[in-house]
Protein: N-methylhydantoinase A
Organism: Humitalea rosea
Amino acid sequence: MTITRTARIGVDVGGTFTDFVLHDSARALVATGKRLTTPDDPSEAIIAGVKRLLEETGLAAGDLHSIVHGTTLVTNTIIERTGAKVGLLTTQGFRDVIEIGRETRYDLYDLFIEAPPTLVPRHRRLEVPERIDVSGEILLPLDEEAVRLAVTQLVEAEGIEALAIAFLHSYRDDRHEARAGEIVRALYPDLPLSLSCRVAPEIREFERTSTACANAYVQPLMRRYLDKLETDLAALGFAGQLHVMLSGGGIAAVRDAKDFPIRLIESGPAAGAMAASFLARLTGMDHVVSFDMGGTTAKMCLVENAAPDRKFDFEAGRVRRFQKGSGLPLKVSVVDMIEIGAGGGSIARVDPGSGLMKVGPRSAGAKPGPICYGRGGTEPTVTDSDLVLGRLDPAYFLGGEMSLDVDAVQKIIETGIAKGLDVERDTASLGIRRIVDETMAAATRMHLAEKGRDPRRYTLIAFGGAGPVHAYDLARLLKMKRMLVPLGAGVASALGFLVAPPATDLVRSHVARLERVDWDHVNGLLAQMVEEGRALLLEAGAAPDDIIAHAAADMRHVGQGFEIPVPLPSMSLSSANLPAIREAFFATYRERFGRVMEELPIEALSWRVACVAPGRDIQMATVAATATESFTDACRAARGKRDVLFEGFGWRDCIVYDRYALAPGASFTGPALVEERESTCVIGPDAAVSVDRFRNLVIELP
């Protein structure tokens, strides 16, 4: 029987590198790859990487069942404000909603506070006479002629490239928005259109309007990008399915990504969290912190019971990176993680005002990249400091495909940062590393503290090109006792695309006290969302019998200004479920706040359905099995020594181990370096290492 179309490829486009993992279960084949990202056109690196993987494995494009893709393109577009020219149609009297916002200041005492700029300037926000109240009753019919005049003005006079429509209370009744959309479609069939009742059908007009505008802002760019990628892959001979990773960690079809690109805003980082969740499930670890450090950013995520935390709102393009309220609020499902500007390409400099060294968040990216890449970089980065400190082999970067220029780095650090701080070159290089490690440790502590968690009780799973290089020092700073580094750690985010399940989250708002809920209406909403979710998952390749739906509700005490997601006991609810729903609310509330107030009434605001199908398992050990002979005796996997500078230990002579030659059961002690093609794992003098049955490095710290 001929084997065909069984191979799958995961592609993660990062700010510095584009990572690839190919898996073919029928042929027992796993292959990995890494290329510098092509910022001007990310699809160039994708096509080149796919071609190379096919050549290395002897496969043809016709053997590919699917390609799963994630990108930072949406995030970068909003941060850099390079999106489309957007117009907005809204209810008469509400054109300034996205500027008024919540009428709060993210910094109460800053007299010169900078508000996050809106994506749609006031002259491109037009009002239309119409009004539906909170109960869904029509108070003022839609003025259809006003819609025609407004959209004609926006297109013909303002030259908009995309349109958002957000009417008051459309989450409760979408008739006016839907009709306005039909009018726009009849006039301008090719104009990208975002209806708030489809993009974010939730209560709160500011957040809903902001999300609809952001979706319209990135829609033309993402459509062009995905259309070009599909065309280029087809020219390669690819006839399989192209899927994308959603910010919530699920896999969706390309059509969904073209219609709702804002749901991809955290698609790349989400893949890393899904990879960590897969590894946690594989190894039986219940309490894990995922640590994904690439060339541009570091991402930390809490993973418990083999699943990452999720949330249903997100702030993009913050004016102040860590200041809540300083960005654009979006109502999208995302993996709950902290992301900071600390990567291998993060630039180090001496601040002229304070005379202190700063590292990040500005990154050298792929162009020009760190000094050691020899591509025109002139400012020292974290990767440059790792090279000077002996952690990277200049002759084995990317498996020897890319040589690193040590002399150029040493010269610039010595004449720049070291001279500016009046310290020796090695001290300056160690300072760069210590600052970035402390920055990541502080962010991780804050993230876990907000959830009431103690990092000492967790295992660190490290991956990404720079993750294993910095994981040992990060674990020490967090006082963790164990860390795990998977095989193929440098491309583990791409692995996340292949193990992530087809999944989607849907929401509808219906506000009511629990004792007054219209259960027939709620059950209708749940059934509608299940039907929509199943259709999306079937398009994403899920089998009909594998799809499972779970219900939840955003609930709060009456009078509170925030709500919490609470799991519901059934997909078909009635007043008989009230005791169970109340108890679920109190359990969730107690876990988050440490106390409950049972005497206060409870209300539900939004009802949610999560549809999910099983993901796939992948054994990365196949990489080692096909790459080289492996040994349980670690000494036989050694391929040399190198001096490495460790803080508190000084320069130490480290054995360098071939990652692919370490078989399950191998063990050794630090100081040591474990090298594979896409990354290097640094192990300190006081650590002990063993290789588990999945070929993960399990590192125990004192």
